[in-house]
User: What shape does this take?
Amino acid sequence: MNAGVALAEGVGAVVDRARAFAERERGATPLFLQNLRQLALEALVRSGFPEPGHEEWRYFPVAEAVRLLSGCAGASGAANASRRPGARAALAAVAALGYAEKRQHQLVFVNGSLDPELSTLDNLPKGVHFHGISRLLEKGSPLVEPRLGLLRGHQRHPFVALNTAFLADGALLLVPDRVVCTTPLHVVNVTDGTDGAVATHPRVLLVLGENAQATVVETFVGAGPAFVNPVTEAYLGPHAFLDHYTLQEGSAEAAHVGTFDAHLAPGGQLFTHLFSAGSLLARNEASVHLHGDGAGLTMDGLYLGRNEQVVDNHVLVDHARPHCGSQQYYKGILDGKARGAFDGKVIVKPTASRTDAHQKNRNLLLSPEATVDSKPQLEIYNNDVKATHGSATGRLDPDALFYLRSRGFGETEARAALTLAFASEIAERIKVEPLRKHLEARVLAWLSGNGRETAS
Amino acid sequence: MSETMLQIEDLHARIQEDGTEILKGISLTIRAGEVHAIMGPNGSGKSTLAHVLSGREGYEVTAGTAFYKGRDLLAMPPEERAREGVFLSFQYPVEIPGVSNTYFLRMALNATRKHRGLPEIDAIDFLALVEEKARLVDLDDALLNRSVNEGFSGGEKKRNEIFQMAVLDPQLAILDETDSGLDIDALRIVAGGINALRSPDRAMLVITHYQRLLNHIVPDFVHVLAGGRIVRSGDRQLAHLLEERGYSWLDEEAALPVGRVS
Assistant: This one.
């Protein structure tokens, strides 16, 4: 079956499923969401999945991912991790983050549905809303409707459309003006495909008011075959500050197609940190729209690939207003036959004078068969701009290896020290302490080959 | 007589990549407590000798032997040589971004201790040791917490080498062009550190192009390397002779066929 046929059949099957889903859920769904699902489905039917050679998808095997999706059923069975050994094993891989002990504010979703046993929301700062979307909808809460889908990603992006067509649950965070959340808020997605391949479409909606501040950690873990298709929308009000972390440690049998979409008002400050080590096929896409004067953006990425993994990082930064700054620093470590990509585009629109934009991508290849495509791009339509981009790909420095060995480091230790040093530049900018420690341990375990291949 | 630290016999080595023979039969014996200087013009094989003795890749030993305290040095991987007490001070110390100087040194020290059946060093003892040895070469505390050699000046890098040597306490130190790139002050500090580490238990092999380092570190023996062979050996007076007359007068001698006595 060639890729085109697979894609067409994939769309057909998925669209039929989405129609049946919409029909089944109609009674329990508010009208605005029914309409949104319908619009998204129509957009997906129009666009189909990206064909091979599509400019924005050239480094991701869409057909292979869609084949995986076609073999997945919608989520069914218990949404309690306590009743799913696969989910418990998946959570054990991130034990350092303390989800089992409910150490922080956390919303845990198992196969797309909220697990009330593992979710804790005690003692949130006054006025802060952090809830499961399905709960809010059940209660007829007015919090969801005004912002959900406002960025219209479902009109542009087939996998955001797919997510929206199946939109049923997820997390909503609303931080009112001038409120600072000092402790991180965690959204945990556990995908357990050990009793049958499963597709999930988790949604996160983050809304920060003027001068509001929050730290959000989105964690993805899983076991068994799965298709995980999360979408996060973030709206930062004037001078709001969001520190956002994505920890992608999906199952080695899973495809992960994640999209992060953010809109910044004047003076808004966004810091994103991506750590991608899991899933057989991973797409980490982020679009940030600097639509207010003086907004600032820093994007860090660290991606690891081994065996036959594919990890495709796709970034779009849209400078639309004056005096905004953006910097990206993505680093990749690839071993085995892994394929990595960094495809980052910064667009500086004619209206964006005094822009300061920087892109940097560095890759470390640990095996002769690992490959990477690095494509930092600047598209500048304004003359009053400071912009740089750079890319470098290499192997471990033999001189540094010898230097370490000549001081008594064993060869394996020396390689590990240098690889960890390469990763540490990104890791040390993580402000959530347990997450940073987890990450450093994870890189070391990954290096010594003890990285989790499957969670079960 | 004190213990033989290093015994090199008829050592031949070539560059692996293109087969160029660099060392053409070197013999040298160094005992505990002795400082030997190897001098020679560029391209004479000085650095190759240091590389071969420390186990750097890219060279092939085609004949001869090198024994360290009676053990076959050339059969050991570089890390084992280090753990056994051989230290190479690099001509060009490598910058290692992301690895802090103290972490690096603690790992190195503990690797050696483990090899000798000792427990890992206590954190407080380590700190005290580091402070004491840093003073020896006047190394700024701030450099200890920076990444290894990253952004260090030439002099700071060389001081860092001698500082590492002081912490690791080797029995055989090979100092490869430790004076290169140093101004007068830095040279005095580095040489002072090296002199402080001279001891009856330790042997040193000081490799240098110029005699000026030997004004500070007075060697027991001086050997002249030319064309991959030791063409002259003597005491420190030989170094002065070289300073006065340069290396050119040796060329004719080096060119003489070896082994023919007329």
